[in-house]
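Can anyone check this?
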Amino acid sequence: MKKGEINSLFKNLSKIIKNPKTDLTYKNKFTLLVSVVLSAQCTDVNVNNVTKNIYKKYNKPQHFVKLGRKRIEVLIKKINFFRNKAKSVYLLSKQLIEKHNSQVPKNFEKLVALAGVGRKTASVVLNEGFGLPTIAVDTHVFRVSNRTGLAYGKNPDEVQENLYKIVPTKHLKKAGHTLLLHGRYTCKARKPLCKKCVIIRFCKFKDKELN
């Protein structure tokens, strides 16, 4: 996709997605981190339903360490893979206390060193929590990037690397959430709403649903 097309693509998307941000509900940077960890292979709606009562009482690393893995499991049992996620939340809480003075680090390498935190989670936290121009590549961003021809890649890491190369600086901070929301509500996996798509003229997807 040419530079002019890329600028026009984000300009058009910004007209309908004016304030892109995560759908996750959180109280502080720590609970944002926890929610993003819990959201892996789980909907944001489900995570919010589970955490809305948890965060009223437990919203610091110390709280979750004191709870322990088993009690965390009970609290999040309605979330997919709750046992593994409870372990991650417990361990990352301990790491934050022991290595980061109970604060979520504003650093990619330090974030991915925490239990259960991968590149996508770290990117979301830095973007949403700290306002940094990072792009998290989830299934929606991956799909939209490849379908449109914006940034091809065989895996999320490749797509992320290529997006950083081509996304204009002025759009970089909002690009990830913009593409995610476009993929979630318009460029859907099974039946994309191509007729309603505001970037259809830039899209390279060969199987457009135009009828």
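Reply from J.R.: I decoded it. The radius of gyration is 18 Å.
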